[in-house]
Amino acid sequence: MSAVEDRLAELGLKLPQVVPPLASYQPAVRTGAYVHTSGQLPMVDGSLPVTGKVGAEVGPEQAKELAATCALNALAAVKSVIGDLDKIVRVVKVVGFVASAPDFTGQPGVINGASELLGEVLGDKGVHARSAVGVAVLPIDAPVEVEMQVEVAD
Q1: 10 Å Cβ neighbour count for 17?
Q2: 75 exposed, middle or buried (CB, 10 Å; 0-12, 13-18, 19+)?
Q3: pTM for this predicted structure
Q4: Is 45 left (phi over 0), alpha (psi -120 to 50) or beta?
Q5: In Å, what is the CA distance from 117 to each residue of 30, 56, 70, 94?
Q6: In this predicted model, what pLDDT tens digit does every residue of 93-149 receive, in sequence order?
Q7: What are phi and psi of 77, to 5 degrees?
Q8: DSSP state of 50
Q9: pLDDT-derived band of residue 22, with 50, 70 and 90 as boundaries?
């Protein structure tokens, strides 16, 4: 196991299997020194644990936990391309989408779930630039979706 996966285990987490694509795309692709993930939903064992809009059917704290699940799924997608998460040089950028009720404005706090998980797991390598975007709806009525760009070593 890699040091990154050892750290996940210390946190009581396990890297999941890569979530199969819902349409015509790859979960992650590498170009040069970078891996770009597709948007990762908070799938657990092949299904969404909850659906709906944040600020309506889904509370902000629950959505924050779902964003952490998205980040974990994104790490699995990265591993599927590079084989060993210890090759991560740094997370460069995270983009988080939050399916939001019309009056919900707490998108940054929700996407903190992904950012905080990456920091806990990767330390300084997990510090990144980020966008947190409110949207009307996400695929299969997911509350959150996260994609990331990661610099990797050969």
Answers
A1: 11
A2: buried
A3: 0.97
A4: left
A5: 22, 24, 10, 12
A6: 999 999 999 999 999 999 999 999 999 999 999 999 999 999 999 999 999 999 999
A7: -65, -40
A8: -
A9: confident
